Amino acid sequence: MSSAVKKSSQPRSVSNAPHPDIDRYPLKVSPDWALRDVMALMSLGSLEGMSGSQEKKTDSANPRVNYVLVMAEQELLGIFTERDVVKLSAQGLDFATVKVEAVMSRQLITLKESELENEPLTALTLFRQHRIRHVPILGDDSAVVGVVTSESLCKALQPSTLLKLRRVSEVMCTHTITASPATSVVEIAQLMTTHRISCVVIVADSDTSSSSLQPIGIITERDIVQSQTLALDLSSLLAQSVMSTPLVCLTPEDSLWEAHQRMQQLRVRRLVVADVKGSLTGILTQSNLLAVLNSTEMYSTVEILQDQVNQLRDEKVKLLEALNVKLTDQVEANTVELQSYQKRYQSTFEKVAVGIAHADLQGRFLMVNQSFCDQVGFSQAELLQKSFLEITHPAERNADRQQIQRLLQGEISAFSREKRYCRSDGSTLWGSVTVSLIVSPGGEPDYFIAVVEDINDRKRAEAALEQLNQELEARVALSTAAFRASERQYRMLFELAPDLLLVLNMKGIIRKVNTAAKERLGYNETELVGHPLAQFLATEAQVTCQQAFEVLMKRGNHRQELEFRRQDGTSIFVECSCTVITDSFDGEPYILAIQRDISDRKYLETRLRSSEQQMRSVFEAMHDLVLVCTVQNSRVTGDRACAHNP
User: Which of 101, 170, 212, 443 gives the lowest tally of CB atoms within 10 Å of its CB?
Assistant: First the structure.
């Protein structure tokens, strides 16, 4: 320590000390204002933010404030702060009925503007001495000029060696008041009032009885003020509903300058401190930062800076050497691991059963796998000279362009659709394609990834099914048209039709049957009409009939094979086509069931399978040499007997 500092017992004035900004547009209210209105005004922001003054611009259009001045005309009567809100909340005061003059702080600590200009750190001394965060500034005529706050003083701090060299662990508050997420907000306010603090750290329930506390949130005076402004019930409101989360924490080894910068970025007045395991170790406030600026400590600290700088330089050189060795080893290890990842990726890319292609933003292929080449019939070299539009069916290109444009504009992150591709041999491939846009680390569009699945077989099956449906619908349409032609023609066609025709109501009850149905089933009309159709089905067919009826109600038509039980107990197999008729003569919808007798076909199929089985058994059991020859190509096949009788 220098001799000059040793001789001086009082801090010296520092001409280049930071001058705190004066809030020249403080919120002012009259004494008769209701406390609820005062808090609403505080939530709106400062007069500077609302007025749009050009004299001084803040970081936001409407910065929040945590105090108001209570004035009568030009006379300063008191001040009301967030700390007062917390104290009154803990007491359960009704904010809607109380005037601000009844609860404001009347014992004011003020400062002349001239004193602040001559001794910029005087406000810091007052903050620390009286444990306050606001000092009204008066002019020479004792009129209110503005207010200096702890925030404005912290904003005035310049990057200094002192703040950069001091660590959070040196000045943080290690005695931290905590609470669980299930604690009520009114209890939080009581804790703040009892311990005269501005915040409470919320820790996980499972950690409250442990020496290692895991912080999950924080509640400040501002949170309680906002809850009161919203007229919430603080006694039933839980801390977990109000706390600020997730937390941005400091570590004990962070510098005070880093802490100061973090507070400025996050626009907060305190930060929780946690170790590398995430356990709570303390809390750092703006008051702690301001305490570091004690003038005497600043002068005494400067004298040891050079030694610390030299020591840090040596440590830095050694650390860099060690890091260089470690980094070299890590790069080698990462290179080996990256090569392994690349091999696995390439193997997956090539072996996967679906087609995968990468394309640039203009649609030209950058990379394709073998599955995609097989799908479209081009080699990899040929595809890398093309764009995806070149192998897209002309009728599909506009839809692709529209979807790609939506991807590039950020409207969607991916899209899926079924489309046609033009193969190299001129044929068409139906594919189900999913296209995603990959962005660069900077957030810019980089390239497209397309995954293509061959759905040609499904499309052919759908086309065949559609054709069958159309044929059936045509038959049904003819039958329906005949039914609607006229009552006489309907009766004639209905009665003389060779197929079994049944008219059912919408519950499946038989309303009418034709002659063929009565003859084939062996029942008379009285035995059939008025009974459910399922009653005459075989047991196995009754289950499928109920499922088919549900499908019929949804689609309006359905076709399936059914097994009926005749009057004599024998079975008859039919191919049943059912259609819901909604424009009937009497206005009520009904079901027309056209059933074609396929018993002979079923019988022949059964006989054929039985005959084939018998022939196969005889063929296999023969011990003689049996040769089967065809005239066209003289191919010869033999059974097991051939092997034993060469």
Answer: 443
